[in-house]
Write a structure and sequence with these properties.
By secondary structure, the protein is of the alpha/beta class. The protein has two domains: 137 residues, Rossmann fold (3-Layer(aba) Sandwich), CATH 3.40.50; 181 residues, Dihydrodipicolinate Reductase, domain 2. It contains ten helices and 14 strands. The strands form three sheets. Strands 2-1-5-6-8-7 form a six-stranded parallel β-sheet, with helices on both faces. Strands 10-9-11-14-13-12 form a six-stranded mixed β-sheet. Strands 3-4 form a two-stranded antiparallel ribbon. Helix 1 crosses helix 10, helix 5 packs across helix 7 and helix 5 packs across helix 10. 42% of the residues are buried.
Length: 331
Amino acid sequence: MKLAVVGATGLVGSEILKVLAERKMKIDAFYPVASARSVGEEITFRRKKYKVIGMEEAVTLAPDIAIFSAGGSVSLEWAPKFAKVGTTVIDNSSAWRMDPDKKLIVPEVNGKVLEATDKIIANPNCSTIQMVVAINRLHKKYRIRRIVVSTYQSVTGTGKKAVDQLMNERNGSEGEMAYKYAIDLNLIPQIDVFLENGYTKEEMKMVNETKKIMDDDRIRVSATAVRVPVIGGHSEALNIQFAKEFELPDIFTLLSKTEGVRVMDDTLNHVYPMPLNVHGKDEVYVGRIRRDETQPKTLNMWVVADNLRKGAATNAVQIAQLLVRKRFVGN
């Protein structure tokens, strides 16, 4: 098994290395890959030091799997070049997500659709991943008709520059701005650019990606995405309308049996998911589960996950592990 991580020196790339090490995935040859300015740097992976290599060299090495976390433009240019030499690319950017010829994969939800011929596989948006993991079994039993989702997304979703801005503001220091406005002691109701319909690109990602992953164009999604002064962990308030009526105890049972989900709901003792709870965790945490008393067949719940883990790195590594289990790579 030869594995490359493209963007290995970045925020998500570093998390991918951490997840790979924790999961003890069998790797015979490891290639950390980054842009020209990082080539030659040393990184540590599984207690060994490796020198960062460039894209051209990585392609010539023809790894079995390449996990990309280097931005959309890099993925559009280089993923096909890796695929051409037989590498299976798992891409964290938005470049391939809505391409009708590429699979958009969350292993717990739709991993079964992967085939050996899929050489470029898209990793969904972080906020979409945690939502579909939480709703998957509910949809199968009750058929979701509509979701209204409000997100509260960590600055780590933007990257190191945003984390630095938050900490500079908190410390009273001058520094480069990742956002147009201050983020400390503030909320910014904009993630990514605004589109003609008044929604942001992030919000429309949740709309379109959910339908593709769940393989159901009938699911209607209305999203509002908000950036909050939190380091690590995206939170979401979901209002879910079903086609069928439900009993609340059955919802708790289904969620507790859903792969990748942990129920944290004991309101009498003030127990519910928060970003502080989920830091460094791979599961999607669900709490504040309650019926919407204003209309029938409708549920409210609160969903929290570590956006750098399940929302990016862990999901990508899980896809790699699935490829190995299916014997699509490494033979």
